[in-house]
Design a protein that fits this description.
mainly alpha
C-alpha cells in the first residue's frame, strides 16, 4: 500500500484490495484524530462511474431514441410500400398477365423501396452531419464526422428498408392476374 496523493481533505491510495484497506484506514484515522470521520470511501472505478453517470444516462436515452427512430422508419417504409402495392394491384396484375415474372415484380417493388430509402438516407446524412457539430461534446472516442459510424448506420437503414419492403413485395408476387383485373 503506497499513498499516491495526500491533501488535507482527501487521501488517494493504490491497493490490491480497496475494501480491505478501508477498515484499516478508518481505525488509523481514529487513532490520529478521533474527531475526523472517514466518509465517502470508494474506489476510483466507483468514483469514475459516478462522474460519468450523467453522460451514460444521456447516451442510453439517445440509444433508446435511436432504436425507436429505427423502428418508426421500418414501420413507415413497410406502410408506404404496402400502400403502393395495394394501389398498384391492377398494374401488377396486368404486368403479370403480359408476362412479367414474379421476380420482376419483386425487383420493381424492392427498387422503388430502395429509391425512397436512398432519398431518405441522403436527407438524413445531411441532417446528421449538421447535427453532429452540435453534439460534439457528447461524443467520446469518435469524431463528429466519423465515416465508419455514418457508413454503418446507412447500411443498417438500407437493411431495415429491404426487410420492411420485402413482405409487401412478396405478397405482390403472388397476385393472380385474373383476380387483379376483376378487382375494379
Amino acid at each position: 500500500m503506497t499513498a499516491m496523493a495526500v491533501a488535507p481533505e482527501s487521501i488517494t491510495m493504490r491497493t490490491a484490495s480497496p475494501a480491505a484497506v478501508v477498515s484499516s484506514v478508518r481505525s488509523l484515522l481514529h487513532e490520529l484524530d478521533p474527531a475526523s470521520p472517514l466518509y465517502d470511501a470508494m474506489t476510483m472505478t466507483e468514483r469514475a462511474r459516478n462522474v460519468t453517470a450523467r453522460y451514460r444516462y444521456g447516451s442510453a436515452m439517445m440509444g433508446a431514441l435511436a432504436v425507436l427512430a429505427l423502428l418508426l422508419a421500418a414501420i413507415g417504409t413497410y406502410a408506404v410500400i404496402a400502400y403502393a402495392v395495394a394501389t398498384r394491384t391492377r398494374e401488377i396484375g396486368i404486368r403479370m398477365a403480359l408476362g412479367a415474372r414474379p421476380a420482376d415484380v419483386l425487383a420493381l417493388l424492392l427498387g422503388n423501396g430502395l429509391k425512397l430509402t436512398a432519398a431518405g438516407l441522403a436527407l438524413g446524412l445531411a441532417g446528421a452531419l449538421l447535427a453532429a457539430r452540435a453534439m460534439t461534446t457528447m461524443l467520446f472516442g469518435v469524431t463528429p464526422h466519423d465515416p465508419w459510424t455514418f457508413g454503418t448506420i446507412a447500411a443498417l437503414m438500407c437493411t431495415v428498408a429491404v426487410l420492411a419492403t420485402y413482405p409487401p413485395a412478396r405478397r405482390a408476387m403472388r397476385v393472380q392476374p385474373t383476380q387483379a383485373l376483376r378487382q375494379e
